[in-house]
Queue: 3 jobs
Job 1
Amino acid sequence: MLLHGIFPPITTPFYPDGQVYYKKLESNVERYSRTPVAGIVVQGSTGEAILLSDQERRDVLKCAIAAAAPNKVMIAGTGIESAIETLRLTEYAAKLGYDCAMVRTPHYYKKQMLPANMLAFYRAVADQSPLPLIIYNFPQATGYDIPAEVVCQLADHPKIIAIKESSGNLDKVKAMVEGTRNVRRQAAVTETFDAVTPRMVAAAEAESKREQEKESRELVSIAVLAGSGAAETSVGDKLPAKPSSSAVSLVGNLKTRQKEVGFQVMVGAAHQLEPSLARGAVGAILAFACPAPTACYEVYAAVKEGDIPLAHEKQDRIKRAVERVVGELGVPGAKYAMDLNGYYGGPARLPFLPLSGEQKAEVEHLMANIRN
């Protein structure tokens, strides 16, 4: 599966009394679906997943995917401390139609989280998972930093396709990219090299079927009125033509081809997006993409187009806002920035506290030239 591009790890909206505000979640997802992001991560750290009940996690996953556009890669955060609970949530996400699962490193029993433990945990989950997996490393939150050597070993598993590396360690990004170069995998992509997932294929097949049924009804009606029996050949003539190139497959109205992707290193530090991409990262899951998805995408696009001066300019434009708004103020900062940019941020759950008036003014100043 192709994971190139920018992915916002969306927030979970709450009412002032702390209940999940599902209508606002739907609205946010619909709006992200109209931006140039490659996909959406549901129930990551920015989504306050660890502050939700088991049922709330499931309900949020269900609500978000129902509102998402079919052409966006949908990633479910399913990491829980035990392998068995991680699998249960991953299986539920698969039933909902998610494309991929993001599994954070177990960390509570830190002294026992040795390389052997991590290898066993991720391999056990991957062996039984119905979805491909992304390793999620966030040492600033967990206090545990999975070694690059362990990641390189896990990359050989066919179901473990990527890592979200949020440590901000550029040397580690480079080490993982270089250490997994021999991993060879193919992924389905569109003619313009965007991601294709089983959910997208199913949507394309369903749409094609609806179109054919509509054309069939229309042609039959015309044939009846004309007193002709030529409807059947007319319908046949309307079927999609076979692709002219053997490299292209036609599924419904969706043309696909194969692209070599290997093991994919993604990052989570928006203030280092450009240098991370320069070291071989292929995409990013960024909290700052919640209030500013287009601003983050502009950095990625400039790098992909080889316009390094523009990439530096776009990176510098957001750097201080990233460091302060999401790096220091965290989820409450990201949510307030969302309120400023037309999304619903709203309150965070305790133990998070609302921003002070001074902090809000600071966020307003930093986000003044970063609109979406």
Note: The chain is about 45% helix and 15% strand.
Job 2
Amino acid sequence: MADEFFRPFFGSGIWAQGEVTPGLWYNVATMNSSSSLGVKSSQLDRKWTTGASMWWMPTTKEFGPRGGYGDWERHEKVATRFGFSTTRSPEQRFTSSTSNAPENTNIRLADSVNVFDTGALAPGVTVENVDYRILSFDAGMKYRGIFLQTEIYNRWLDNFQADGVVPVGSIHDTGFYVQAAFFPVPKKLEVYGVTSQIFGDQDAASTTAPSTAPG
């Protein structure tokens, strides 16, 4: 799904969450990396990953337990949620000492190639550092067992530092997902469907690879 392609993963750091006014929530975080999976402490630098989310639930001031997918609780009044999220992370390759392969495998181009793979942006050129930014918007509703949600993504890769010349200064990929579900038998049987799409940067397509891929 597009969600897996665009989103950051799991970092270690500090975070804060609170309710500004009934139904309006925020979450902010500062972490050591956008993904700590498989990363050694000796590989980390002093650059921080930062992120924030805000969401508003205007009609019922809630969106079910933990904002979960599906209207398990069967809202008798339309529950709505609108939000946005953003993350910025300076990413590095984390080169393997044994194979010279990148250990940072989370950031992919629209054709699924790891941006840190040699030749990903130009023949024989290896990207060592890149800035990753994302901005997404989401909206959802729940009513009498019916659930509908969508999210729209924007991701920028820029500030490339490589061992050669790369033909692009910035890559802007976009995408979305839509999910719908309902309970024909309340709290016992749910039917759902989901679709997503990733749209690669057309301006960078001629210098990278095929610019679109299904989510």
Note: The chain has a mean pLDDT of 87.
Job 3
Amino acid sequence: MPLERDPEVEGISVTARNWQDPPVNRWAFWHVADVLPTYRVSRGHGPVRALPAASLTDHRSIDPLATAVTRADGSAGTVGDVLADTYTDAYVVLQDGELVAEWYGALGAPDRTHALMSVSKSVVGCVAAVLIDRGQLDADDEITGYVPELAASGYAGATVRHVLDMRSGVAFSEEYANPQADIRRLDEWIGWRSDESGGLGDDPRGLYGFLATLRAHAPHGARFLYRSAESDVLGWVCERAAGQPMAQLLSELIWAPMGAEHDAILLHDGLGVAVHDGGLCATARDMARFGQLLLDGGVVPDGAGGVRRVVPPAWLRQGWAVDSDLRTVFAASPAEPAFPGGWYRNQFWFRPGEAGDVLLCLGIHGQMVHVSRRTRTVCVKFSSWPQAQNPVYLEDTLRAFDAVGGVLGRRDPVRSGGVPGLVSGLSRHRGPAAPPAGVI
């Protein structure tokens, strides 16, 4: 059963070794700073972006939880059923920037941060976007021009664009259930799993030291393969290009200007290096604000009737604009069965949904930001799945949020052949549910 109280009350110790394991993960994901070392990501001193409640007389007052969903196994249910059955810790639904629905489990609250896991990647990707827009970073430059420490690694010859789109040729296995996988070796180098007593290791070798050990086994750019190491390299490159640590970059470039209400926190390794691939923790409302920022093309209201740019709109347009190259490499990847017709660009997932193409920020154990341009909806879900990956939970959640967008947006499901941006001749039919490779 999920843990609904402080684990100390249950006689269970939460440590750096078990914080992602059930049942303690339900508590630990809300209390990461009590278990692991973190930095503060300041929201600054500017105004908070308002999330006004949807009008009671408006159609958006429809209860999204009652929306019908056909689940992955073919059974009928509702959005509420899906959320109840998938270890939901919190959810928030916006339409056009207005708060339609919000809920927190017994351990959560609107002002409490929750582990985002690899949703962090999308926020770090937006940091890279701002640096590129400012001319401090060039996506076509080789990584080693910014981080010469990687010159002897598999990243030699790879460009910033390669890691943005997870298309380097570096070997990295992201099998969470395999203790020998590279993703688990990464944890050991960070120091989170190296001390048998359950604490941080006495002599962590560090995240950046680990990245330098990776080797290439394919040409750069030839494939798409989801790997957390790509985002860690990207974060390192951003820090070098800007001359600032990631916590400061996140605060100054994204968190404060988007109008976050609360500080976020960012995990770091035993040597003080930020965990770029999955270390961010934030409130559900602030992640809804981030999703709204993406939905609105990278701009926020300026308080005077206009808008202020945070993320370059061209960055988001580029992400949404699927082409034959993106589809070809994605179709050949292990992620295609989970997201048939999808693509990956700029640290975002994209998939065709029941009401049009959807941008996704995803993390293991069920973290999700679901952005639908056609229905103007943002859906945020925090979870504490017992497993890092669960293909049925993932598929059911995607269907649930597609359904929420459809009923709020008063849209009929997109029929075959009617998906905007479809490259002619490429199949985008839904297939059987399967986990994307290493979503973290």
Note: Confidence is low (pLDDT under 50) at residues 194-201, 415-440.
